[in-house]
Predict the structure.
Amino acid sequence: MDRKPRRSFRQRVSEVLESLPFLAPLLIFLVILYGMLGWTLYVSLSNWVGTAPNYEFAGLKWYQMMFRLDRFRVDMNNNVKWLSLGVLPTVILALFLAYMLEIGSVKRIEGYVRTLILYPVAMSFVVTGTIWSWMYQPDKGVLNTILRALGLSHLAGRYTTHPGTATYWLILIFIWQYLGFAVIILQSSFRTTELQEMVEAAIVDGASKLRILFSIIVPNIRGGILILVSLLLISALKVFDIVYVVTFGGPGYSTDVLALFMFIATFQQHLVALGAGLGMIIFLMALVIVIPYTIYAFRKWFE
Amino acid sequence: MRTRDLSTRLIVLLATLVLTGVYVLPIYVMVVTSLKTPVEISQRAYLIPTRNLQFQNYVEAFRLVYPSLINSSIISFTVTLLAAFFGGLGGYYLSRSRSTLVRVLFILVGVALYLPYQVILIPLVQFMAKTRLALTHAGLIVSYLILNVPLASVLMGTFFLSIPRELEEAAQVDGANRLQLFFRVVSPISLPAYASTAIIVFTQVWNEFLLALTLSTPNTTTIQVKLAEVKGSFVALYNIQMASALIGVLIPLSFFLFLGRYFIRGVLAGALKG
């Protein structure tokens, strides 16, 4: 199957025929996927308002409208908060944790901690959102009740009911859910023989623990970090379920994000062209995140 | 790279304790609450387990979510089987060929891999409504396949890349063609890879919310949609909310707890880490 310098027409045909049973299903789904992507783009340039499709061309009308909306500005702001605060602290925390498990723990503790922080990966955001809604609930919620019982009622917060800080508390749920995932990705990056040997050598030389982490480990796991950051960014960008379940964008639309607005604009306000436009904005942001990642994966795959 | 350094050990111990609090508390409160009566819950001793366990909470919760459990099972298992099968085929070719077609395909798959569903949601809803697929489980099954076949292909491909080719070369000398190679030589030794892929796809589909919310009809309501509904309509009945949520996580959580190795391998392969 490898590339040969010259192939006759018949060889090419037989090669394609040979690949068909393998690639046909994948191709079909990719065609549907990219076809629908194009369709969304087209809808975003149409004048579709209401439940019945209307493909009358309207140019950038709905994009212009979108950029003028205060809600869009709030959403972009919140999405930036999700992308930065959902990702950076998770990566840093995971880095220290993974390192800690790697150098300072006994096998049994490592297994325990991994299971402990990884179980949320198996749970849906709907479930996590249900639990945390209750943890956060201001007057009857678990956190405030515990704080009050400890005589710390001045620490009791309004969590997701305060418009100014609600998004941060939502992001905390995301970090809680993804920390374990981040740790196992980084841990698997640590486990190359070269890196292990370098670290052993540094320990013998008497380098400090932090120095080893930042001067030896971090520069050598850049690939792993790139992958982790990309995956977390994409998940933070896609975030919909947590917001839907915990606050539904409220109070007001202070915790709204693009993904939720897209849903509301399309299926509740029936501004389908606007919804499609929001979808395209999400797609473009996703593309910026995914392209470096795909190039990296491509190189590794075909090396 | 282990150390016996005392201060490091202390830090590890401390961190372990903090993490235990942060990760056990929510699930502990959940389980304890799910077994209480509303009156007991209103006394706000959330951390103290009750003596008279209300197992009928689970009976009631189960009655509520039962139809959606069936729907989700039908949808998730079908998607998992098909995606693993198609993904095995596609992933195998992606891992073995270096033709231009395959390189282009890889880029297209890579971009598709983690695409937000929002970008295809409107056409999907239109398509499902037009073809009336939305009225049956087939609507959600097809929708999930669109994004999960590329994912499964990459997962399987990652595993296939790590299989030495000598085996196939030997069989090729004996005159086996590609399909025979795949089904008789490669697939049988790749069952763990199929298990990992299946677990990942299953968990994804089972936990998916946006598509389920927009595409499900009363006959196809999935567990996540039902759980969100329960949370909305049983606002004060935390015991029922928590019991339903626990029932809803049972299947993926048991995969994680009992097949953890495959689960983690799948997560790593999904991150293209092999």
